[in-house]
Amino acid sequence: IWYGHFLLPYLLNQILFSIALPQFLQLSLIQTVTLIPGDGIGPEISTAVMKIFEAAEAPIQWEERNVTAIQGPGGKWMIPPDAKESMDRNKIGLKGPLKTPIAAGHPSMNLLLRKTFDLYANVRPCVSIEGYKTPYSDVNLVTIRENTEGEYSGIEHVIVDGVVQSIKLITEQASQRIADYAFEYARNNQRASVTAVHKANIMRMSDGLFLRKCREAAEKHKDVKFTEMYLDTVCLNMVQDPTQFDVLVMPNLYGDILSDLCAGLIGGLGVTPSGNIGANGVAIFESVHGTAPDIAGKDMANPTALLLSAVMMLRHMGLHGHAKKIEAACFDTIRDEKVRTKDLGGNSKCSEFTEAICQRVRDMQ
Amino acid sequence: MTFLTQNPTVTSLWEFLKNKDQIPQRVFTPPPARYGGRHTVTLIPGDGIGPELAHHVRELFRFCCVPVDFEVVNVDSSMASEDDINNAIMAIRRNGVALKGNIETNHNLPPSYKSRNSLLRTTLDLYANVMHCQSLPGVRTRHKNIDIMIIRENTEGEYSSLEHENVPGVVECLKIITKTKSLRIADYAFRAARATGRRRVTAVHKANIMKLADGLFLECCKEVASGYPEISFDSMIVDNTTMQLVSRPQQFDVMVMPNLYGNVVSNVCAGLVGGPGLVPGANYGEDYAVFETGTRNTGKSIANHNTANPTAMLLASCLLLDHVKLHAYASMIRRAILSTITETRLHTADLGGQGSTSEVVQSIMNAVQSTGPQTLSI
User: Fold this and answer.
1) Across chain B, what does the average pLDDT equal?
2) Residue to test with chain A: of B103, B171, B217, B300, most A Cβ within 10 A
3) pLDDT band for position B6 (50/70/90)?
4) Which residues contact A316 (CB under 8 A, 6 or more apart)?
5) Is the pLDDT of residue B280 over 70?
6) Per residue in B192-226, pLDDT tens?
7) Chain A (207-226) residues lying within 8 Å, Cβ to Cβ, of chain B
8) Which CATH superfamily includes the segment(s) B36-134+275-369?
């Protein structure tokens, strides 16, 4: 029997519906993302990211909002209601650097955002950038840090004159939440192991509680390997051989130190992406460097950190194809060494760097 | 660094009477105990690789005819009673100096079981932990020319072991910072910098978040800094510090910090210069001194395999010899250790080689013998 008449339609059917249709479906679902440009170099790097996303034809629509602290009823500081409403609606946000004015009377903007959306997990993937040489190559790890409690609870008292007490708070609920998130992340991103970093030999009850919750989460996710390591051992091994680590989960203070240590391994805060995951499905991706007021407006900024955070955002939203394209374009441009911003050792402007990436992305389509 | 824990001895009764109404200071410090010209030093082998390294130290000292006798005190970390550690503390009070391996703390035991090492440090008030990290010749590392002295507050801060659970599921751990101890450690750091001719002291803190606690520490450091005008003082936030350490560690000179940051920074620096097997550590108090490996590892997984790197423990024993003023022996042994380190074929596993501990110690003994002074026959 001659099936040839059906072969071509069958193949076309396969191609269209199993491979291409998901893309078509995605294209028709343009997602809105809240964009907070920030201060200093924030606006220029946000523009750069928007341009690159346009060149890559990513199905993202940006909703720009400004976040400045305003005083609500009762004197409580909060973010503007339209920003809050936008974020609650869109659930996904991209944020540039925000400046923390000294003695302004209100807490830092980052802290306000964290409290408003209950951003409990700070995720920082640290991957060595091929074109940017550091003494460490082949770094590929993720630090997941509990972001709401721990040593940064801000509870301090002066007991008597000259004796200060600072309280480190560890709760069962927060530890469980972060441990579960760490294993979910490992599973969703095909990471092989999760390591809990602690100091339970000294802080028996607090880190002990954290560790117990991690162990319980490990039981529920048997497909991911779980290990525990002391903070000092992690630091020691990290600077000697960072390739032995995969996903690290830890309380607030250790997370702060270790995530910055890992950022230093790959080249600093100017090239490190970061994401904050909150309750109710809110996720805000940000660049963690400062506002760099000295180069603001001079077209000298490096948009890599914000761009890589945006790529992280795409992955979080499931748009892996676009994420891969943009990331590859970015890394290729840096590796090429022809157009690099000043902080990466080159001489180019931000707009030139952005244009180079856009060109590469267009060539990839 | 004995000059830092002992004031110059008073030479006459007249001087004593002249000064006795002034601010009470320690005017008379007995010299280290010497019975028949020999010093007695407490030795606590500890767990893991501790016992074998302690054995090598004794072997080397015996070979070099060092006038030091070791009083061995074993601390059993699996026992719940604190008798063992109290015996060790009493022995250290008796002898004034100790060499110690790390005592393991099983963190699955209930909180009433305190870390033995921590107990020892707080009871003897060994307030300063000094770790000198320098790049050693012959050891291949990613960064070169590192020379950092880390001075870490050793008795308070996050290691106060004060924890409680008021509400089920909510644990509070107290971090205590006091003005007296912060002033004391800052003063120690500046005196050490002055004594070793170093120009810059950096205080590591997180005062932007822990405003009162680390703020107090920073204030104390600034206060002490004003009394040492020839030494420049600056401060750095701990996360920025770790970032700078992995990119440009050569910028640091002396670093002073509270307990937990000291733990992180000292381990990072030890990793930068080649690992836990190379750096010795010293804990100084007003009256006592305890020497150990810098990063305080038990090394359980490599215990009794003859693969541990003895360098850290042997360099710690050299620091001990300096402390009891046996400088000639200290320099002799140190020179031998450094000449052995340059031989790549003798590197132990942690340095990427395949040498064994006994080979390294043997080579050190050969080096000592070849430099001349009387030794026992090999």
Assistant:
1) 89
2) B171
3) very low
4) A92, A275, A283, A285
5) yes
6) 999 999 999 999 999 888 889 999 999 999 999 99
7) 207-209, 211
8) Isopropylmalate Dehydrogenase (3.40.718.10)
* pLDDT value at residue B220: 96
Q: pTM of this prediction?
A: 0.88
Distance from CA of B271 to the nearest CA of A (A): 5
Q: What are phi and psi of B35, to 5 degrees?
A: -105, 115
Query: Is a pLDDT exceeding 50 seen at residue B3?
Result: no
For an interface test with A, which of B113, B166, B208, B239 has the most A Cβ atoms less than 10 Å from its Cβ?
B239
Q: Please work out, in degrees rounded to the nearest 5, the angle formed at the alpha carbon of residue B211 by the alpha carbons of B206 and B215.
A: 75
DSSP state letter for B103? P
Contact status of B107 with chain A (Cβ, < 8 Å): yes
Q: Note whether A291 and A34 are within 8 A (CB).
A: no
Does residue B114 have a pLDDT over 90? no
CB-neighbour burial class of residue B36 (10 A; exposed 0-12, middle 13-18, buried 19+): exposed
Q: Is B272 on the interface with A (CB under 8 A)?
A: yes
pLDDT at A323 over 90: yes
How far is the C-alpha of A194 from the C-alpha of A186, rounded, in Å? 7
Q: What are the CA-CA distances from residue B233 to residues A19, A65, A97, A116, B151 (Å)?
A: 63, 42, 30, 39, 14
Q: Which residues of B touch A170 (CB under 8 A)?
A: 170-171, 173
Ordered structural domains, chain A, with CATH:
31-99+107-123+269-364 (3.40.718.10), 135-266 (3.40.718.10)
Please name the residues between 34 and 73 in chain B that touch chain A, using a CB distance below 8 Å. Answer: none
- Ordered by start, the domain boundaries in chain B are 36-134+275-369, 142-273
Q: Domain B142-273 - what CATH class?
A: alpha beta
Amino acid at A29: L
Give the β-pairing of A247-250 and A193-198: parallel
| Residue B294: φ, ψ to 5° | -60, -45
Q: pLDDT of A249-276, one tens digit each? A: 999 989 999 999 999 999 999 899 999 9
Q: Are A297 and A328 in contact (CB under 8 A)?
A: no
What's the token pair of residue B200?
């810059």
A308 Cβ contact list (under 8 Å, min separation 6)? A271, A272, A273, A327, A330
Instruction: pLDDT band for A341, please (50, 70, 90 cuts).
Output: confident
- Cross-chain residue pair B165–A205, CB shorter than 8 Å: yes
pLDDT at position B340: 94
pLDDT one-digit tens code per residue, A27-46: 458 899 999 999 899 999 99
Rounded CA-CA distance B123/B110 in Å is: 21
For residues B133 and B146, give the distance between their C-alpha atoms in angstroms, rounded to a whole number.
7
Phi, psi of B27, deg, nearest 5:
-95, -15
Query: Is B243 at the interface with chain A, CB within 8 A?
Result: yes
Distance CA A153, CA A29 (A): 40
Burial of B377 (0-12, 13-18, 19+ CB in 10 A): exposed
Between A102-111, A147-156, B320-329, the lowest mean confidence (pLDDT) is in: A102-111
Q: Do A168 and B246 count as a contact with CB atoms less than 8 A apart?
A: no
Tens of pLDDT, residue by residue over A188-246, are 889 999 999 999 988 989 999 999 999 999 999 999 999 999 999 999 999 999 999 99
**Given CB atoms, is A164 within the 8 Å cutoff of chain B?**
yes
- Residue B4 clears pLDDT 60, i.e. is over it: no
Residues in B closer than 8 angstroms to A274, CB to CB, are none
Same fold, B36-134+275-369 and B142-273: yes
Question: Is pLDDT of B168 > 90?
Answer: yes
